[in-house]
Amino acid sequence: MNYVILSITAIACILPLINVLAISFSSSSAAAAGYVKLWPVDFTVASYKFALTKHEFVDGFWVSLQRVVLGYAISIAVSILIAYPLSKEKQVLRSRNYYAWFFIVTMLFHGGLIPTYMTIKSVGMLDTIWALVLPSAVSVFNVILLMNFFRELPKEIEEAANIDGAGHWRTLWSIYLPLSKPAVATITLFIVVFHWNSWFDGLIYMNSTSNYPLQSYLQTIIINVDPSTAATNDLLDMSAISDRTFKAAQVFLAALPILLVYPFLQKYFMKGLVMGSVKG
Amino acid sequence: MGNKLKTLPLHLMLLPGVILTLVFSYIPIMGIVIAFQKFVPSKGIFNSKWIGFDNFRYMLDMPNFSSVLWNTIFIAVLKIVAGLIIPIIFALLLNEVSGAFFKRTIQTTIYFPYFLSWVILGGILIDILSPSSGIVNQFLGWFGVKPVFFLGDDKWFPYTLVITDTWKGFGYGTIVYLAALTGIDQSLYEAATVDGASRWKQMLNVTLPGMLPIITLMTVLSLGNVLNAGFEQVFNLYSPMVYSTGDIIDTFVYRLGLVEAQYGVATAVGLFKSVISLVLIVVSNRLANRYAGYRIF
User: Fold this and answer.
1) Is A65 exposed, middle or buried (0-12, 13-18, 19+ CB in 10 A)?
2) How confident is the model at residue B156 (pLDDT cuts 50, 70, 90)?
3) How far apart are CA B127 and CA A239, in angstroms?
4) What is the pLDDT averaged over residues A70-89?
5) Separation of alpha carbons B220 and B80, rounded Å
6) Contacts of A233 (CB under 8 A, 6+ apart)
7) B200 Rama sector, left if φ>0, alpha if ψ -120 to 50, beta otherwise
8) Percent of chain A's residues with pLDDT above 70
């Protein structure tokens, strides 16, 4: 009985994706007529060809890629550089708790949409990739995760390195980081998935659509039907129009990177999740 | 002197993070003052007129504000309840299963939707829930159910939100509970077996009590989310047809602020939400400390 319930639910979790995949490989007439279930009807890759030659899609993909690389590099560096000093005892870094609270406050309270937008605007980052990678660079959650991991490393190794003349930079680079691979891997994955999936910041901080990351672009074409013109009938028809297969192909292509790395990431995520949520 | 030199590298390490946080977190927090101003962008924060609590009064007098507040709480509470109960049930079911491969496959599958963005999931859901060609309505059609416009019918919309949100997130919760289950002392089960307890009795008397601390913790922590009904999801799934039941504070602030350019009022609404959320988080932290012995900060 257990097996049945679990299997059915698990299937329900991926069936929608399979359905969309099948639609993306079907002919548009079969898709529009609603013939496609879980297997393509009149197999064709036309919608994929169309997506990969559509320059908005390719541009968006490229912006997303840049964003992931740049955003990851900045975010991981900053997170490690915050976590290391905060993992020290108060005796070592006397102002430790002031720094800790400085960061924690931002977890509890933030300015909200309008003041944040105005800040990004006033520092001149609108329409640049910096608006996508800098505001999210410090993730306090990731810092806490790393910091807790650093704290559990044996103190003796550090002391030995100290006696051998290693300073803080050297200790961090040659001792802490090599020992912290699981934690670093976990937050690496958190950061990469975060950047790949973000869409709202692209939507509001980018003035020209050519700077949209992939997910922001998809948001505007797949989901956003202009509220002022959308009548009930339009929405009803929305899924019946001929570009149903095209949309499905794009959705699938955007999910593909996650789909490809997911099996490898999964075990780290689980470990990271457990580290982050059930400490002590 | 010697000590100063030793800690200087530590301060240097913190510097980039401090600067980024000052600029992107603290400056926006100070920007909240426009909630108390008749803010005009061309005049800026320093020259706009102060109007005290007028924006808040205006907010409370808006005819749709109370329904937005109600929608937010209604959707958020349903999500919290479903998001607590379903992962517990799943963790219990999975825990009773013995095959390691089956277990891992199920975990991997149910965890997967969690990693897709709401844009991707929105695209998928709009398609599969479509009343004319969506696979869900076709399936319901086999049982003689008339097509339901899940995303366009204001009666159905809140429940569609709750179900799809649970669908996306319950794998995550399940793993947290499974981790807690592995921490239960195995000898308790052996003792129960010796006393002749069935698997069902074992679950009631060993497994559930063993999970109680983490259940309490998760329940208390979810308290802080009573005003978070999920901006990303609602924004990607709603339409003017379902504003009456689906509009939540965050989407309301978005339209008021960025679409209608009522900066002061939008910030006031956002501040209202932040303050209540902050109070709830502080209260839940206290409760978590008292009932689960857990402190987040």
Assistant:
1) middle
2) very high
3) 6
4) 96
5) 11
6) none
7) alpha
8) 89
B109's CB contacts (< 8 A; 6+ apart) are A10, A11, A13, A14, B171
Task: Please state the ipTM of this predicted complex.
Answer: 0.88
Three-state secondary-structure class, residue B238: coil
Chain A residues in contact with B232 by the CB 8 A cut-off are: 200
Separation of alpha carbons A49 and A64, rounded Å: 20
Spatial CA neighbour of A247 closest among A17, A13, A23, A14 = A23
Q: A112 and B271 in contact (C-beta within 8 Å)? A: yes
Report the candidate in B264, B243, B261 with the shortest Cα–Cα distance to residue B65: B243
Query: Which of A114, A201, A245, A278 is the best mutation test for B, with the most CBs of B within 10 A?
Result: A114
Q: A-B interface: how many C-beta pairs under 8 angstroms?
A: 270
Six token digits for residue B32: 């909240």
A222 interaction partners in chain B (CB closer than 8 Å):
119, 122-123, 126
Tens-place pLDDT, residues B20-78: 999 999 999 999 999 999 998 888 888 889 999 999 999 999 989 999 999 999 999 99
Please give the distance of CA A130 from its chain centroid, rounded to a whole number: 16
What is the value of pTM for the model shown?
Answer: 0.88
Radius of gyration of the CA atoms of chain A, in A: 23
Compute the residue count for chain B. 297
A176 to A80, A172, A185, B102, B180: CA distances (angstroms): 10, 5, 14, 37, 28
How many other C-beta atoms lie within 10 A of the C-beta of residue B204?
A: 12
